[in-house]
Amino acid sequence: MLRRRTVLQGAVAGVLLTGCSGEEQATGPTTSPENPFGVSGDSALEVVVSEEYGGYAAPQYRKKYPHANVAATPTKQLRDLLQSRFAAGSPPDVVLNTGDKALATNRLVADNHLADLQPLLDAGSWENTGRPVKEALLPGMLDAGRYDGTLRALNYIAAVYGFWYSAKLFEKHSWDVPRTWPELLALGTEMKAARVGPFTYAGVHPYYVFEAVLTLAAKTGGHDVVKRIDNLEDRAWGDESVTRAIAAFGELTKRGLIAQGSSQLDHIGSQTKLMTSKAGLLPCGNWLENEMKAVIPQNFGLTMFGIPPIDTSSALPRGLHVAPTAPLLVPEKAKNRAGGFEYLRAMLSKDVAAQVTAESNQLTVVRGAADGLEISTALRSARDLLTAAGDQTITWYFADWYRELGKAAGDVTGQFLAGGLSAGEWTARIQAAADKVKQDKAVTKFHRD
């Protein structure tokens, strides 16, 4: 459970809807398993979304409530268009809150503008009223939207992180996907002999490779490793699992397994190096395919594998870093709040979630929604890793809570991989940055249970 936390915001462009919401009937219908929130079938519903997929539940809602006027239109100006409406007490009924112009979710919570979504979790799911919505969701995906223990935002998209490679290149050289870190180092040596820069990363944006380091640390020592880091506990960065993880990545530098020039590359440069087979491995999230789809070579076989554990004693051998993003919100003062809950219930149906995956090439937090879909090799590999991870999904929040600490962790990791710091110096510098945050009384502190 999280207390007073800032929800992760997805970095995607947005959409709005215009329209008017009708007042709910003073004596609306009674609740039932099929209508758990007592929706009035003729009340208008206003849905404001920052991605078009946020409107995909409208047909299901209209089918169930044919007399309701449901409006959903895209906009990229969420903050500009909605901030004043929240302040005036006339918000829409549903908001998908992502993008550069997203609303500050923590501010909305502080101002009591967001409804408690627990009734949604307890209600029966859209397809099966005997199964609560909360049981239809992937494990570990709700905490990102909890504030003081209350769910105020439901993050809809699951961003999966791992190492990417070309299946075509691996097949050409008869390379196997490494199952342990020693196997990864051996693979890097083979790649180097084949004149393929084994490992690349975005040196200009080193947080991406830091993400891989912390994932390896959590796989090694378990969930408590990142919980202690999130909670700014003393000497958390000196945990043996963390020091083993950074030492493991240090072997890439020591053995010359990092592609030349990686420390100077931005994210597009490092991704291009992978696409042109000048590098064999790249740490990144599963948005990679969407971002590079125009330049991915034919039959490239873009595929993700999970960061291999250091050895067979890992606490989370299937551990996978998953960041729930794209928060769905129901305003406390929505004119049709019951309809807002019902709309989210439809969004969390398998049919709608499957459509979102099929059309946006992203995974959702709905359990099994992407199963059986004809999707790309890249997305299928991420989906299969997410399914296999089960309750071993890894999440952390400190980089969002304390942005300067997150930036420091990335910057120091970049310096380390470029050969500018020792592992001990890496640990000391990040721990010092964490201690500075902890001791600063002007910084609001957050806690994770």
How much of the polypeptide forms β-strand, as a percent range? 5-15%
Low-confidence regions: 1-26
Shape: globular
Largest sheet: 9 strands, mixed
Which value, in Å, is the CA radius of gyration?
A: 23 Å
Q: Write down the overall mean pLDDT.
A: 93
Broad structural category: alpha/beta
CATH-level-2 architecture of the largest domain: 3-Layer(aba) Sandwich
Quantity of strands, as a count: 13
Distance between the termini: 5 Å
Keywords: Signal, Transport
Protein name: N-acetylglucosamine transport system substrate-binding protein
Main location: other
Family: Belongs to the bacterial solute-binding protein 1 family.
Structure characterization notes:
- Helix content is 38%, strand content 13%.
- The protein is α/β, with parallel strands linked by helices and 449 residues long.
- Strands 2, 3, 4, 7, 8, 9, 10, 11 and 12 form a 9-stranded mixed β-sheet that branches.
- Helix 7 crosses helix 8 and helix 7 packs across helix 9.
- The longest helix is centred in the C-terminal third of the chain and has 17 residues, at 423-439.
- It is globular.
- The model is unreliable at 1-26 (pLDDT under 50).
Write the layout of secondary structure elements.
Blueprint: E1 2-3, E2 45-48, H1 58-64, E3 70-72, H2 78-88, E4 94-96, H3 105-110, H4 118-122, E5 146-147, E6 150-151, E7 154-166, H5 167-173, H6 181-193, E8 197-199, H7 207-221, H8 223-230, H9 240-254, H10 267-275, E9 279-285, H11 288-292, E10 302-305, E11 320-329, H12 337-347, H13 350-360, H14 377-389, E12 393-394, H15 398-401, H16 403-417, H17 423-439, E13 447-448
Parallel strand pairs: 2-3, 2-4, 8-9, 11-12
Antiparallel strand pairs: 1-13, 4-11, 5-6, 7-9, 7-10, 7-11
Helix pairs in contact: 7-8, 7-9, 7-16, 9-17, 16-17
